[in-house]
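User: Reviewer 2 asked us to show a designed sequence for the structure in our supplementary figure. I'm pasting the structure tokens here. Could you produce the per-position amino acids so we can include them in the response letter?
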């Protein structure tokens, strides 16, 4: 029976590396997840970090997590072609047990310097998403998967997300990262019970679970409502550990449980000790879980038949124009009301985006996210 590996998201970041050192020294880290595309522009990677990557790669315990591909961009961009070429080269250097990417598209003029936000669940986005996943699989030559989203504009989007993920990954026999903090954001922001929402996800496709922390924001509408944000800059909440205990038995193909935290939230000795304690708690939960013996081998999540990427990448110029327009509205709006008024007369009105149904507080949150990312990239 394949063990579930207690893992950390480990990148070339002083905060996360210094916080992780005691865990590496005690040989507790059973696998690492590396956001490989954050180093695509580095001319030189330190030899000690390469040695760390090769150690886990050689053991078959290195997984890659993409950040900047912008899976659903309506136009196949030069940056995406370069991203795939860099991944192909990196997959020839390291043995990735799998590769994953974030769901959604990146706001911003070039879709590679903005905030990751949701897309309409339509035949167009399904066709584009499948095409991009096939291209990632062809470049990496390993299983590929997608992470569930932390942000949605409406309760209807939340309810449809799991089914759409299943339709996306099925042609490549792909898998799902079930990020439990992302799930917590959706549960809180849309007042949904766990039992209702978890049943809407294809749990037989969960190969990896994420846990992390986040932050709270006061909703623009007031009335005491708070919005949970997936900012990765704080300790893991108790409720997320509870979600882990409840979810482990529901995922028969689970192989990795990964703890994430940004290095910016690990600048003090207290925060680093908290990171260590959170990992120990996560590992104890994983080790205490005793799955039933499998009747058959775990799903390897490799394509059932060879993936063909012959021909031009799938594109849709209408979707591309809508994404550019939405990015501009979110990045420039001075208020939620201004954004609503602009959306009502935009090219997104009356389309599969269903902007008329968007929750006002979630639209305000999207504005904050987009404008924060824009400032960071300025």
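Assistant: Here is a per-position design you can include in the supplement:
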């Amino acid at each position: 029976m394949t063990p579930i590996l207690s893992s950390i998201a480990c990148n070339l970041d002083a905060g996360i590396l210094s916080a992780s050192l005691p865990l590496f020294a005690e040989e507790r880290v059973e696998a690492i997840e590396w956001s490989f595309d954050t180093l695509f522009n580095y001319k030189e990677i330190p030899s000690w970090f390469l040695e760390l990557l090769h150690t886990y790669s050689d053991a078959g315990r290195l997984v890659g997590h993409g950040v900047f591909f912008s899976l659903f961009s309506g136009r196949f961009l030069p940056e995406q072609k370069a991203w795939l070429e860099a991944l192909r080269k990196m997959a020839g250097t390291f043995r990735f047990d799998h590769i994953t990417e974030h769901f959604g598209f990146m706001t911003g003029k070039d879709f590679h310097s903005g905030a990751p936000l949701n897309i309409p669940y339509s035949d167009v986005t399904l066709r584009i998403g499948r095409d991009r996943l096939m291209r990632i699989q062809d470049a990496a030559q390993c299983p590929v998967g997608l992470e569930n989203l932390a942000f949605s504009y409406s309760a209807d989007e939340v309810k449809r997300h799991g089914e759409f993920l299943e339709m996306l990954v099925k042609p490549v026999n792909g898998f799902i990262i079930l990020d439990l903090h992302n799930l917590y954001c959706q549960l809180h922001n849309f007042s949904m019970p766990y039992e209702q929402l978890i049943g809407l996800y294809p749990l037989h496709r969960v190969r990896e679970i994420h846990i992390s922390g986040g932050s709270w924001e006061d909703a623009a509408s007031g009335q005491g409502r708070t919005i949970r944000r997936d900012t990765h800059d704080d300790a893991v909440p108790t409720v997320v550990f509870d979600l882990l205990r409840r979810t482990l038995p529901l995922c028969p193909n689970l192989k990795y449980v990964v703890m994430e935290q940004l290095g910016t939230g690990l600048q003090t000795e207290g925060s680093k000790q908290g990171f260590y304690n959170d990992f120990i708690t996560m590992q104890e939960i994983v080790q205490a879980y005793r799955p039933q013996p499998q009747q058959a081998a775990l799903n390897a999540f490799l394509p059932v038949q060879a993936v063909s990427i012959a021909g031009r990448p799938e594109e849709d110029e209408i979707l591309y124009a809508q994404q550019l327009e939405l990015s501009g509205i979110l990045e420039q709006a001075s208020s939620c009301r201004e954004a609503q008024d602009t959306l009502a007369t935009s090219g997104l009105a009356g389309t599969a985006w269903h902007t008329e149904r968007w929750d006002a507080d979630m639209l305000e949150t999207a504005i904050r996210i987009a404008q924060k990312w824009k400032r960071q990239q300025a």
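For the response letter, you might also mention the following. The longest helix spans residues 269-288. The mean pLDDT is 93.
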